[in-house]
Amino acid sequence: MTTFRTIDNIAPDRRLLVRIDVNAAVEDGTVQDSRRFARHAETIQALLADDHAIALLAHQGRPGRDTFVSLEEHAEILTDHLDHRVEFVPDTDGNDALAAIDGLESGDVLLLENTRMCDGELPEEDPDTKAETDLVQTLAPEFDAYVGDAYSAAHRSHASIVGFPRVMDAYAGRVMETEYEANTALRDREFDGTVTMILGGTKAEDAIPIVEQLDDAVDRFCLGGVVGELFLRADDRDVGYDVGGPELFDHQWDEHQETLERVLEAYRDRLYLPTDLAFEDDRGERGETTLEGVSKERPFLDVGSKTAARYADLVAGSEAVFVKGALGVFEDERFARGTVEVLSAIAEADCFSVVGGGDTARAFALYDLDEADFTRVSIAGGAYVRALTGEPLVGVTVLEYDG
Ligand SMILES: Nc1ncnc2c1ncn2[C@@H]1O[C@H](COP(=O)(O)OP(=O)(O)OP(=O)(O)O)[C@@H](O)[C@H]1O
Ligand SMILES: O=C(O)[C@H](O)COP(=O)(O)O
């Protein structure tokens, strides 16, 4: 059983370095608000009530992706949620950051620049190695304690997640505490009836292994999104458009081809693949095609209507449904049908239901879905599925306290 020291154990009026996860969607260059901001604002609010001086660390996107942007807009969104100024510092661990930190006073909140702009942050290495990075060595001496609140990034062994707890007092924030408890409890649930998992989104490394890992717990997997198309490719279908796009397919295919083919072969009778797909036609409207009409020459942006209806039926007959990732680019109304139809079917069904994924959770606000119709909606994606499989989260382990 994990024991954390939480922010309730910190004496008032300290200088705190707080790692949050406000990794967000970026549309037309604009950072989109999400439930992650609201949830972390609750942690910050609680820290402000204890007169702490706060510097926030967070990441956004990955180098090479168009979502890899500055955190300037994130500071504005957090300011709105908190109704308290969050000052953006366009530097993470250089002289400008140190000068801003030096001036921090009780009640101040700073947001330092994207941690993934620092050299030592990203490669996944063990916590002791990450503790040696310039980021950790430079910032740690400036603070009394570290607060780990980035539950949704706790599966990443990155410097800002695992390095600081090695060299300074570390505490779990409110998001870390509540998400950890709720998601870990899910693992121990047992169901008499059919358990269905909807697996979509863009992150193959998060989605593919869980088919094998949840072998005993899940009866059928309904696939969609980029993940579904990768499985279709493993089934010899000519899909997965990358030309000029954000490189979601070829790179992930090269990395995971063997696993995709093995999993498809071993679980074929329990994996439901899309039987039709949607695309943008010449008039800019939603077009659909069966698998006979697919080709790598065009992007497919949603599962087709027949697939959506079939998945909705499967959901309706389930005792429990777990969702990770969206079935299509739901942010565009033309390609929201798969995701929204399945989420609506879950809302209407009398089943135990959990929806995870930082991006996927946005569909609730966009399409007026009511969280109350679901058992739980997590702001975590990769960390949530790892909690389901029982795989330890390194960013949680480093906060554990035996005392
Ligand atoms: N066919 C597709 N092509 C491109 N993008 C897609 C497709 N289908 C779904 N998506 C995108 O997948 C995103 C959600 O997937 P992601 O893998 O980020 O999952 P998540 O579980 O919501 O998030 P996270 O793991 O980041 O918390 C959505 O923003 C959606 O636009
Ligand atoms: O959005 C997420 O799932 C987390 O912030 C982790 O981001 P990553 O998948 O880019 O490491």
From TrEMBL:
InterPro entries: Phosphoglycerate_kinase, Phosphoglycerate_kinase_N, Phosphoglycerate_kinase_sf. GO terms for molecular function: ADP binding; ATP binding; phosphoglycerate kinase activity. Keywords: ATP-binding, Kinase, Nucleotide-binding, Transferase. It is an enzyme of class 2 (transferase). The keyword Transferase applies. GO terms for cellular component: cytosol. Substrate binds at residues 21-23, 59-62. The keyword Nucleotide-binding applies. (2R)-3-phosphoglycerate binds at residues 36, 116, 156. It catalyses: (2R)-3-phosphoglycerate + ATP = (2R)-3-phospho-glyceroyl phosphate + ADP. Its EC number is 2.7.2.3. ATP binds at residues 331, 357-360. GO terms for biological process: gluconeogenesis; glycolytic process. Belongs to the phosphoglycerate kinase family. This is Phosphoglycerate kinase. The gene is pgk.
